[in-house]
Amino acid sequence: MDSSDANMDAFALKDCALISIATGKKAESLKELRSCLLTISLDSIYLHFWGGLLKSRFEEREFNNDFAAWCRHSLHDHPLAERLAVLDPQDYGDLEALRQEMLSIVEERLDESEYLHWVLASDPFEFLRSQIVVFDTYQRIQRPEELTTLLPHLSTSSLFYHFIDARRRLPEGIDDFRYWLAGFDGQYQPLADELAGVDPYFESLTALRQQVTTIFETCCPGNTP
Questions:
Q1: Cα–Cα distance between 208 and 182 in angstroms, integer?
Q2: How big is the CA angle at 161 (ends 63 and 71), to the nearest 5 degrees?
Q3: Taking 80 as the threshold, does the pLDDT of residue 106 lie above it?
């Protein structure tokens, strides 16, 4: 739900697709990765951290961001891969802060060995950037109780849009559900508080949907006729 929506009493249910676009930038060494990170757009960092959630897969991801996976499988730098793998975007105020933390980790690793400055990766890291395409389902939710019934059937891409992408879209940095619930004058504050405690980064979207559904079922049971 965009903050600009005129009718703030109804939740506008939307869906999305995250499009990957080549930037033309690539890194073949850790030193080049650092150089690219200095200037690459924040949309690129967003995609390489969050975009994997929308990819179809049948197994759990080994790494939650593309940078850690590249360091492990192409640069064969296991210590650096582990350091990057534990980064949680939720721990940083914005993507710029996340970029700075990545730079700090990479520079610290470069300082540990001169060898790491020139060793080449078996495959380059191709920097992509993201563009989100939003679809209006034209479905409008009047009360939070309706979401309790709807959530188990919500597409994972719709959940991504409302629960994850909203955090960079809304000035408040929160998900669309909490933004909407705030308009009910505290009536659903316990529900909003529970949702605020969910960290969506290390879960699959399917597991996240179940977690959010359970919170709604616990804090907001039933369906208003």
A1: 22
A2: 20
A3: yes
